[in-house]
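Write out the bound-state structure for NAP.
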Amino acid sequence: MMAADSGATVLEKKDDSPKIPEKKKTSFDVIIVGAGPAGYTAGIYCSRAGYDTLILSGILPGGQLVNTTEVENYPGFENGIMGPDLMIEMRKQTQRMGTTIVDDEAVNVDFRNSPFKILSGSEEYEGRAIIIATGANPRKLGLEGEQTFAGKGVSYCATCDGPFFRNQELIVVGGGDSAIEEATFLTKFATKIHLVHRRSELRASKIMQERAFNNDKIEFHWNSEIIDIKGDQKMQEGVIRNIQTKEETSLTVGGLFVAIGHEPNTGLFKNQIDLDDEGYIILKNKTHTNIEGIFAAGDVHDRTYRQAITAAGFGCMAAIDVDKYLTEKS
Ligand code: NAP
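---
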């Protein structure tokens, strides 16, 4: 006869051994600082090449595209894609390839010796190679309405947003090559461009100036500044003031393009790697900085193209250069 089931509960043996906290991984083959298109693309390529890769993404990952609405010029999306959605897709793809992503900010770096050290808010990380992909931010006017109407009329990229402003009047602020290039480009879509510049002469190159002066869709407002941006759901009006006469003029427009320069996010690398007068990283050769093993990709060194697709391209190039560097070292 089989013994009847006693029904007693079998107690699991309690594990009283002291728990050793799992040690967080802090040492990697490659550390990428920044999580815009350049950083994510570099992550995809480095991980696919078999390197143990970390992206320190900062507190607000995604770069400038997180502040954009629809992106129509990134290949692969027939009907366009919202900027934040594009960055979420890039992040997921990067993670699927095996890249570790930590949403923490690099607060200090030590590039004197390899492995290079990067200090975040909570950890010290070590990498055999580093890719700097911290991007740049467009310089802001500092007006209250600039924030309120960002993506609702106020833009910092004519190539990205120009086609959304067909048959409207627009304001462009600035007097450098960017402003003149953007104003000229925008005449393809807009009925009229009001170019507002704080001085009586342009900083832009002569040839670009001539092109703009010969374009009858561009009206120049010299010695002028924009002092207010108004609207309801979207921007509808810009108020400009002549700095000399103090006369104020209200312009009924569909949008405002701010083109007063960019600021690369390189404060962290000052005194560690070579930067130019405006803080952009100087590349010695391809994506190499002046320090062997430290590479850069995207708007942090590129003041010319500044597109998501070119930043992604630079990320790919930096990862290929890192592969070559690490292969030669081992
Ligand atoms: P930029 O040359 O520094 O010009 C910035 C312009 O914005 C200047 O006219 C400046 O006025 C004005 N500005 C600055 N802060 C302002 C403020 N708070 N309020 C109102 N106006 C303000 O910048 P960029 O045009 O972006 O060009 C950057 C670099 O990229 C340059 O070296 C340029 O040659 C290059 N780039 C080249 C091309 C090309 O060759 N196709 C295209 C774009 C850019 P002031 O003149 O009074 O200082």
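---
The pocket of NAP is lined by residues 139, 141, 173-179, 181, 198-199, 203, 260-261, 303 (CB under 6 Å).
Residues 308-329 form the longest helix (22 residues).
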